Structures are given as C-alpha cells and as structure tokens.
Amino acid sequence: MMILRQPRYNATRRVKTLNTADIAAYIDANRDEFMAQLFEFLRIPSISTDPVYADDVRRCANWLVDHLEDIGMQTVELHDTEGHPVVYAEWLSEKEDAPTLLLYGHYDVQPPDPLDEWETAPFDPTIRDGKIYARGATDDKGQLFAHLKALDAWLSTVGELPINFKVLLEGEEEVGSAHLPAFIAENKEKLAADAVVISDSPMFAKGVPSIVYGLRGLAYLEMTVRGASHDLHSGLFGGAVPNPINELSKIVAALHDESGRVTIPGFYDNIVPLDDEERRAFAELPFDEEEFQRESGVPKLVGEEGYTTLERIWARPTLDCNGIWGGFTGEGAKTVLPARAHAKFSCRLVANQDPDDIAKKAQDWVAELASDAVEVEVRVFHGGPPVLTDRDNPTVRAACRALTRVWDEEAVFTRGGGSIPVVATFSEVLEVPTVLMGFGLDDDRLHSPNEKFNVENFYAGIRAAAFLLEEAAR
Ligand code: BES
Ligand code: MN
Ligand code: MN
After folding, report:
1. 155 Cα: distance to centroid of ligand 1 (angstroms)
2. Does residue 421 line the site of ligand 1, with CB under 6 A?
3. 2-215+387-473 has which fold?
4. Bigger pLDDT: 245 or 18?
5. DSSP code of 227?
6. Which residues are catalytic?
C-alpha cells in the first residue's frame, strides 16, 4: 500500500535569483531549530533488526514523510514493503535540461547494546564537547538529515531547487536492505537520475573532506557444531566423546594462516588488486597509524602480510568471527561437556568477489575442516556485494567543488571498509553512478556505544549538501 499525500508546498513562495549567501545565512540563522529537529529524529528508536521496534521504525518513516512535506517537497510517499517502509520524495524543476540527483540514506539504526556502556541514553540525544551523542547520530540519521536541511534552505530562501532532486530513504540498511532492490527494480522510472548521492561514510580526517570510491561487500554466516545429543558430565564422558566447542575452535583457528590470509580455497580468486597509483595515493594520505591503534584500544595492529593498514581495511578481503557461544557461561564452574557450539563469522569482500559464491566456498571449507566426530552446519545470512565507483563524472566533480567550498581543502579519494549493500543495485539496475560524500569521522563509534556526530560536521554537511545542488546545476 502506498500513502500519497498532497504537498504542503506553497507555490506563492517568493522566488529569488540564485543566492547562496542567503542560503548560508538561513542555515546559520536556523542552527538551533535544525538541531532540535535532528534531536526529534534521533529520539525515535528505529532499530530495524529487532521486531519489537517495528512500530518505531514505521513511526520514524512517518516522521520523515511529515518533515519532507514541511520543507516543501512536491511529492512525498510512504511505500510499504515486506519489511520496513521506504520513504520517497521529489522536487522536479521546470527547467528543461536540469540534471537529477537521487539522495539515498537509511533511517534505521543498529541496536544500542551494550546499554550500560553509554554515558547518556542512546535515544536521548545530548551534546557534549561539540558532539551529538545518540544512536544514529552519524549512521545515518545525522548525515542524511543534513541533506534535508539543505533542501529546506533552498526552498525557504530561493523558493526552488536548481536541479531535480529525488529522495529515497530506507529502514532496512542495517539488516542488509533485503527489500530495497525489488523496490528499485519496480520503480526504475520514478527513480531515474544522473547520479545517486549518499552521505553515510566518514571523512578521511577532521577538516579533510573525502569522496569514498570503494566499499567492501559482506558475506555473513553462522556455524553450529553438534556433538552429543545432550549436555554430558565432563568427568564421565570427557576424553572419549567429541567436544563441539573444541572442534569449533579448531575450525575457527584454521580459517587464517600464519601470514594473516584467509584459507578458504578460492577466496582470493579474481579479486581486483589495488593498482600502483591507488597504493601510492593511499600512502600519501596523512594517516596516523598510532592514533588509529589508540582509538581501537589494542596493543598492536595485525593483518594480512604485505599490506598497509589502510590497504587492509579498505581494499583487502577479510574474515572475522563476530560471536561465539556454547556450553556453560554462567557464574562459577560447571563441569559439562556441551552438546553444541556456535559461531557467527563474516567476510568483508572486495571487487569481483560475490557474496553468494564466497558463502558457498566458506560452507564447503568448514565442512572439509570439520572432524567427522561432530555434525557441522553453516547457515548463510544477508550479505552485500562490494563496489568500486566512478572517480570522474560531473557529479563527482560537483561534489568535490561543494566540499572544497565548505572545508577550504581539496577532497581526497578514499575507500571505506564498511558496506552499503544497495550501492551495487544503483549501478546494476538504475545504471547510474553513486557519489559517496560522507560527513562523519572515523572515531564516531558507529555501531558502538556512545555513537556521536560532530556538531560542526552537521552544519558543514548542510552547507556542502546545499552547495552540491548549485554545483550540479552548473
Ligand atoms: N554506514 C555504514 C557503512 C559504512 C561504514 C561505509 C564505514 C563506509 C565506512 C552502514 O550503515 C553499515 O553499517 N553497513 C553494514 C552493512 C551490513 C549490515 C549489510 C556494515 O558495513 O556492516
Ligand atoms: Mn550507515
Ligand atoms: Mn551502519
């Protein structure tokens, strides 16, 4: 079902000549108002993975619908899917050859756990030391909202947009965007654009604006190792009966070799290697390895031999165990020989690796590594393909100019280690390039306790998003 509402757009709004000084002044004059609105948005616990929050996810979608109407978008729609709703809005120009941008963002957030590690409650946004603390502050509510405020600034001052602008906001990114590709395929014409713009990634460093041109993909699996039909006394049976936790640990340990490479046969087949120019460009970035280590809180960095830290996190495929459980984990001691053990593990993928193919190869490899004294099952969860985007097209150049106008620095080209599954769909189905211009920072703690977004990045992001429209119209 689709809810179509009449826009509250006021056609008599005064149309002035293009004047970005007015836009910047409007943004300055409305700082507090914009922050109050962002806080409202952040207060809605739109946790997509937990069915308990399904109503809140929907409430969040409706909040966006209202907001898009309030700022004067011509068309605003809420589309139900088999999962969480999609929000769509557009503003189409009367100018004939105006280019079209499609903004993508996600209004769903990760669960806030572990709750007791938050200094202030995750859904009670608070500003401390110039940072907005809340779940979703940077990933992705704060970043996507910067674009909505840029539209607001244009429509409230100039009275129109200099280009056609479409908005696509989903509530399932954090759970793999299962239903969005079908929505996009069914609405190809509606979503037609010259480029997709996304702000859901970090800047290279504070004050260094960035265009991310590569994202890793993801294959996510869970293995279950079954031994005895029920938990046994480890004194009566231990030594003679296979222990699923021991067996699972052997498998997990065998997934990497000494040089830090993943042992799954065929894992590295056909991957697009980093070219010399990219390696040189990465090496020239002012990357502070010690700071990176400090921020992650480890005594030493590790990884695949022969690659730098930036290459490892941006452009090399990896495998990580994400969770492991089984047996007795309560207080004190219990001498048990458990019947089952479990582990979740995932692979970050790079260009030319296919999530389904890698998942299949991982399943086969685990089966081969497993002892025949236990039963091993590997389930495959949602994943997403890796992407490499165009580094030179009119929208990339427009984004670079917009970023430079705000930060007074040339934008750098970086890659991102995370995944945004739908980006591949934009290029495959809509056949349009994506420009990733993020306003976050690497230490924003996305998915972690005390997620934050710099107050100044929020306002700078609004200006950059506003200038992008003007630059794209050139
Ligand atoms: N915004 C992130 C993706 C991201 C992180 C891009 C860092 C660039 C740098 C996104 O919301 C995210 O967390 N994606 C998930 C995807 C998964 C749930 C399919 C991820 O990367 O784990
Ligand atoms: Mn995100
Ligand atoms: Mn995320």
Report:
1. 31
2. yes
3. Aminopeptidase (3.40.630)
4. 245
5. -
6. 108, 173
